[in-house]
Design goal:
By secondary structure, the chain is mainly alpha-helical. About 45% of the residues lie in helices and about 10% in strands. α1 crosses α11 and α7 packs across α8. The protein binds one RNA strand of 75 nucleotides through α5, β8, α7, β13 and α12.
Length: about 500
RNA sequence: GCCGCUAUCGUCUAACGGUUAGGACUUCAGAUUCUCAAUCUGGCAAUCGGGGUUCGAUUCCCCGUAGCGGUACCA
């Protein structure tokens, strides 16, 4: 602790029950932004206290995806690339001084604190069966009462409980909740939240399999790891009073809480896998740029004010403010993401964009190692303003690599006819043949050709439509000059010759 | 059922209690043009309802309505 108070520390604490999804990305981002803004630190903690729901490779996916999006954390599990060991666990190392950042590896710690609560009398053993609890709940619902555990096992003496445990009876440990009064806190986003204690359930802290529940593990770790601000999804808002009671029972100071509005499906329900794509990895695979994804997700539920739409991560850090986060959920607007991704693609330097696109072209079988690098770069330059995702680079570029099949009708402009087209294309070919290779660059070529058309008194449409379709074989395509430039003089002239034969 | 949260164009959002309620995406029209895309110009489109408070409510308060979240030995 310094004279400026404790260092700001936040955490992103996902459970590895699948792949990192777009909502998790935003939570991670806001945590990251808040940490950077305040010169604090950002930690990653894996909350895998439900062994049933653990997904193989989930931890790696989270780490890799965060890394792809450049949301680097200061503490947390890291992948040990050098150790090529089969088991996931041994591939993961720690970065930071708090022991493991994976909760399943911290079990003794939770056990220690839950025992302390038992000693203090703020937690108790519970032996009630699932059936009994179910029955109780039904009864409460029928009577329009809040559903919660009735606290039957509170009256068990410690000695009695220990005897039953020795006899092998299954048990859980629950938190005692005060019967009266209410629990209140000031949320950084939602403001004052107050819940009457009579509505708070006696939360299970330790499950019968010896694992802690989220509530226990979360509170213990946040405290032990020095977390000052808990920034998490709004779905946690209703259980925050339980956490506060837990902090109090353990005699620990409270962190600040900031709950984030939910990300929603188009039907306004909580974002889920069932409705469209939510895995960040899938977006990345389709060719959404990490910067675009970050930009998009940052503006869902928060806004730096003003009319700007495109921001760098640095700008986001500069402008970020927990207090200006919205309170209502946000539906993902896919069209806007596409537009934004297109903007990022347009802003990319060609060399860089080419490198990003080549894997997609290879996957589609359009290019190989032997393909001319220059040709690929030219194609990328032409397509840059047209594609919304990297994946789209594979659409409608086949003709660059393969001679098109012509149909005579395609070659004729709407205001022209077959005979005229043939004549014009033939004279155009002669003209192009006379042009030196150096003039075969899109802008120069356009200038020269336009000048020639004027001189010959030929309508641009009469000449350029056939020229373009001869080069591409497509109704819709980039301009004839771009195409000729990309294909090169020899190939371009050959295609025009082939086209003339069809007329 | 119970508890909680929320409410501005279709969507994301802006608006010290005073604005012709602004911007972006989408969409439509026009310009440009050999086609597509891009670009430029313009248009359509919103304060959930009812009460207060106030000279004046999108903004503050209450009620209603709707939506969502929670209600697990899931997180």
């Amino acid at each position: 602790m310094s004279i400026f108070g404790p260092k700001i520390k936040v955490r992103f604490a996902p459970s590895p029950t699948g792949f990192l999804h777009i909502g998790g990305l935003r939570t991670a981002l806001y945590n990251y932004l808040f940490a950077k803004k305040n010169k604090g630190s950002f930690i990653l903690r894996i909350e895998d206290t439900d062994s049933k729901r653990k997904v193989e490779g989930g931890v790696e996916n989270i780490i890799n995806t965060l890394h792809s999006c450049e949301l680097n954390y200061d503490e947390g599990p890291i992948l040990n690339q050098k150790l090529k060991v089969k088991s996931q666990k041994s591939k993961i190392k720690e970065k930071g001084n708090n022991g493991s950042y994976i909760q399943s590896e911290r079990l003794p710690i939770y056990k220690h604190y839950v025992e302390r609560l038992i000693e203090k009398g703020t937690a108790y053993y519970c032996f009630c069966s699932a059936e009994k609890l179910e029955e109780e709940k039904k009864k409460q619902q029928a009577e329009k009462l809040p559903t919660k555990y009735g606290g039957h096992c509170i009256k068990n003496t410690k000695e009695d409980a220990e005897k039953r445990i020795k006899n092998g009876e299954k048990y859980v440990i629950r938190l005692k909740i005060p019967e009266n009064g209410s629990t209140e806190f000031e949320d950084e986003v939602y403001g004052k939240i107050s819940i009457k204690n009579e509505f708070i359930d006696h939360q299970v802290l330790l499950k019968s399999d010896g694992f802690p529940t989220y509530h226990l593990a979360n509170v213990v770790d946040d405290h032990l790891m020095g977390v000052t601000h808990v920034i998490r999804g709004e779905e946690w808002l209703p259980s925050t009073p339980k956490h506060i009671l837990l902090y109090e029972a353990l005699g620990w100071p409270l962190p600040k809480f900031a709950h984030l509005p939910l990300l929603l499906n188009p039907d306004k329900s909580k974002l889920s896998k069932r409705q469209g794509d939510v895995a960040v990895e899938d977006y990345l695979k389709k060719g959404y740029l990490p910067e675009a994804l970050i930009n998009f997700v940052a503006l869902l539920g928060w806004n730096p004010k003003g009319d700007q739409e495109i921001y760098t991560l640095k700008e986001f850090i500069r402008y970020f403010d927990l207090k200006s986060i919205n309170k209502s959920g946000a539906v993902l607007n896919k069209e806007k993401l596409d537009w934004m991704n297109g903007e990022y693609i347009k802003a990319k330097p060609i060399k860089e964009l080419t490198e990003l696109c080549v894997p997609y072209l290879k996957d589609a079988g359009l290019v190989t190692k032997k393909t001319d690098k220059k040709l690929i770069e030219k194609i990328i330059k032409i397509e840059q303003g047209r594609i919304k995702t990297l994946q789209e680079i594979t659409e409608g570029v086949e003709f660059f690599f393969k001679k098109p099949d012509y149909v005579a009708e395609l070659l004729i402009w709407k205001k022209s006819d077959k005979k005229e087209t043939k004549t014009i294309l033939t004279t155009l070919l002669k003209f192009l043949e006379t042009l030196p290779k150096g003039k075969f660059e899109e802008e120069k070529l356009e200038k020269e050709t336009q000048r020639w058309l004027k001189k010959e008194n030929i309508n641009t449409g009469d000449a350029l439509w056939p020229m373009r379709t001869a080069l591409s074989g497509q109704k819709a395509s980039p301009s004839p000059f771009e195409l000729a430039w990309a294909l090169g003089k020899a190939e371009a002239l050959q295609r025009i010759k082939d086209a003339i034969k069809k007329l």
